[in-house]
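Notebook entry, cofactor series.
This is the third protein in the set we're modelling with a bound small molecule. For this one the ligand is flavin-adenine dinucleotide. I'm keeping the input format identical across the series so the outputs can be compared line by line later. Sequence and SMILES below, as received.
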Amino acid sequence: MQVRLISVTAPLIQVENKPLSPEGLMAYCARVSSPHQETPDYGKLLAYCIANKHWSVFEMADMTVEIFTSRAISPQILRHRSFQFQEFSQRYAKAQEIEHYEPRGQDSKNRQNSLDNLEESTKTWFDEAQEEIAALSLERYNTALEKGIAKECARVLLPLGTRTRLYMKGSVRSWIHYLEVRTDKSTQKEHRDIALGIREIFREQFPVTAGALGWQ
Ligand SMILES: Cc1cc2nc3c(=O)[nH]c(=O)nc-3n(C[C@H](O)[C@H](O)[C@H](O)COP(=O)(O)OP(=O)(O)OC[C@H]3O[C@@H](n4cnc5c(N)ncnc54)[C@H](O)[C@@H]3O)c2cc1C
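Returned structure with ligand:
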């Protein structure tokens, strides 16, 4: 499991004696100027807000997810500056694990793309190279710690494949744009897989918004 729902906005107000859903809250706030603020149906309203780029409505609810990935991918995630993050610290805690990735071939026409076109022998070579590097770097890293070298210094011996964990909190607005960009084919597969997992969570938590976005 790479992603897990940690929290979602829990509205305190009730409409028709029922607590509002996070989406209901967004609609309730969007209707701030309307005499019909408590109208329970809000599918058309949220779709209208999306179509007309009325994005602030989607800033009224938040979602936090936990993400397990590598240090190769976490900097890409951290670039999404409208989110708030907590990431596992290699200064305070010991790195435990190195992730293993399936290799793909370089696309010669698009430097930001890779292709599933490698020979089996090349894949095997890369698997073995990853195992070799992981074993060597973890052995030297652990030895460095045993010698009393600080974790913040010893970590330079670790590869980009080193496992990390993040909490990522953002508004529905931020999630909409993050998911649009990071589920696209232009995003590296390992990051795209994370975004696709988060999109499943988003669909469960915000089904009306997801439907209006065409995320069936
Ligand atoms: C394929 C790809 C390649 C990249 N390559 C590089 C690279 O080579 N070098 C590099 O430094 N960086 C690269 N980046 C990172 C990129 O430039 C951004 O820094 C990163 O995607 C974060 O996006 P953001 O700044 O929009 O942050 P976000 O936190 O995602 O968005 C900031 C704010 O803008 C809003 N927003 C975003 N999109 C929209 C929209 N369409 N309409 C309305 N509001 C919107 C969000 O809701 C949020 O409030 C790449 C990104 C991708 C996806």
